[in-house]
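Sequence, please.
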């Protein structure tokens, strides 16, 4: 069931009426100003820009929710936002867990999530097994506090330990690293649009956008740069459809919110997900622990589908994927598609 257009228009109209404090607006505006000069040429810089805009989105949602307590009409508008839309616009579960651990003084640890009928949140701290045994109860309480604040109940906590291992780079790896830096910097100085240079294999890989038409010219230039640096490695070019990757990234961000919102609550019986994105069509595979014979199977499947479609219809309307098609396929415990 898709969200009614009238409701979407009402939400947009109400959003336009919200008065945002000037200082907060300026802060969000500054975030965009700082992020604009950052080019999308390397993974690190893209991540930084994404973080800035994610922060702005979280701030915006904070304005919405805090205003709702003061303004009944805004509270009514907020209630129209789909459940998964609220998850999407709030801080992700993994970020909240990470921050909670740091606030309690933990500095060296790793977080993981294993899907399944009951999701397992794994926390691995630096140290021995005795350290993990000593901290297990405290860490479990930290995780529980965050999860309960989100209303999540379909999880268990596993605490373990690890001993850090450091393997220094070999002389050859250091040479390759320096070679990659030289090739990347010199190609960019020549005016070519370069996404990434990988010098660590038998051949040097240079990634360029699909829109960069000078592939062979870039390959020859990279080859000359490598030879001048004393390398005999050959060079090959990989064309990357940047816009497709951006669209796919939007869809996967939707899927992460879908899995968090539905997978971490027992009532939905969601155990995992998968997807296929091709020719501007997203197929979402939602795995459940339901059996077709379960009494409430049909009702639960319809609720899952409704939550997802309401969320997607609202979010994709003004995004890069607004013209993409999508299909939601919900599967039972045995991996078979539900017919409804």
């Amino acid at each position: 069931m898709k969200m009614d257009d009238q409701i979407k228009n009402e939400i947009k109209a109400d959003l336009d009426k919200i008065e945002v404090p000037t200082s907060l607006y300026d802060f969000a505006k500054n975030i965009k100003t700082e992020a604009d000069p950052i080019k999308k040429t390397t993974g690190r810089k893209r991540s930084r820009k994404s973080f800035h805009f994610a922060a702005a989105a979280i701030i915006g949602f904070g304005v919405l929710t805090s205003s709702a307590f003061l303004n009944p009409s805004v509270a009514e508008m907020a209630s129209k936002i789909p459940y998964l839309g609220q998850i999407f616009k709030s801080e992700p579960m993994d970020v909240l867990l990470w921050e909670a651990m740091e606030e309690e003084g933990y500095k060296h640890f790793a977080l993981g999530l294993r899907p399944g009928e009951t999701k397992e949140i794994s926390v691995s701290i630096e140290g021995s097994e005795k350290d993990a045994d000593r901290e297990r109860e405290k860490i479990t309480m930290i995780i529980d506090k965050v999860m309960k604040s989100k209303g999540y109940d379909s999880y268990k906590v596993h605490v373990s330990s690890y001993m850090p291992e450091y393997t220094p780079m070999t002389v050859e790896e250091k040479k390759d690293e320096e070679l990659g830096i030289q090739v990347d910097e010199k190609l960019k100085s020549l005016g070519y649009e370069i996404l990434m240079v990988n010098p660590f294999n038998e051949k040097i890989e240079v990634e360029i956008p699909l829109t960069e038409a000078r592939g062979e010219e870039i390959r020859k230039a990279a080859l000359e740069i490598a030879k001048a640096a004393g390398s005999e490695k050959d060079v090959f070019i990989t064309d990357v459809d940047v816009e497709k990757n951006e669209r796919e990234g939007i869809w996967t961000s939707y899927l992460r919110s879908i899995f968090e919102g539905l997978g971490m609550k027992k009532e939905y019986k969601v155990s995992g997900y998968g997807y296929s994105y091709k020719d501007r069509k997203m197929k979402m595979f939602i795995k459940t622990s339901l059996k077709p014979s379960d009494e409430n199977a049909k009702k639960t499947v319809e609720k899952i589908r409704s939550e997802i479609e309401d969320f997607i219809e609202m979010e994709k309307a003004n995004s890069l994927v607004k013209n993409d098609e999508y299909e939601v396929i919900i599967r039972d415990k045995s991996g078979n598609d539900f017919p409804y």
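The chain has four domains: 5-81, 93-162, 171-240, 244-331.
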